[in-house]
Amino acid sequence: MNRISAEEFKKADKLPLMVVLDEVRSLHNVGSVFRSSDAFRVKGICLCGITATPPQPEIHKTALGAEDTVEWFYYKDTREAVQHLHQAGYTVLAIEQCEGSTMLQHMELEKGRKYAVILGNEVKGVKQEVVNMCDGCIEIPQFGTKHSLNVSVTAGIIIWEFAKKLLVEK
Length: 170
Fold this sequence. Notes:
It contains 6 helices and 7 strands. The radius of gyration is 15 Å and the shape is globular. The protein is of the alpha/beta class. Strand 1, helix 2 and strand 2 form a beta-alpha-beta unit. About 35% of the residues lie in helices and about 20% in strands. Strands 3-2-1-6-4-7-5 form a 7-stranded parallel beta sheet, sandwiched between helices.
């Protein structure tokens, strides 16, 4: 199936994307984000605030070992993560429904740039003070009666869109 080993993964070129989890409470959601991040070779994950960190059996249950391949960092406060990412040259985008947000299908990315996306708490979303620090907001269009998606589903959609635009569409 042309799968690479964990050691090959660590040495491989990565998608220039950091995924930031802002106060995500479900360890299964965290594990799922690790697994999607592994699938698309995301640069890393920032786990912030109450977001659990590996090793945890509940994270492993959905990550299936991706918590050992994807590099991760912990920040007590998401604002600290955003500051660090800005200093490292990342364009930081909140995945949130907000005034002036860009619909995902209209998102334009520049090859050669580094990006970070912030996904928020399952109930409250990305904290407003964190949104205010971002370079923009991306919104996933939705056509049903609900106006939110599970954070791990959102992560999968967003990560795939970045991979598609930065790696697949050449």
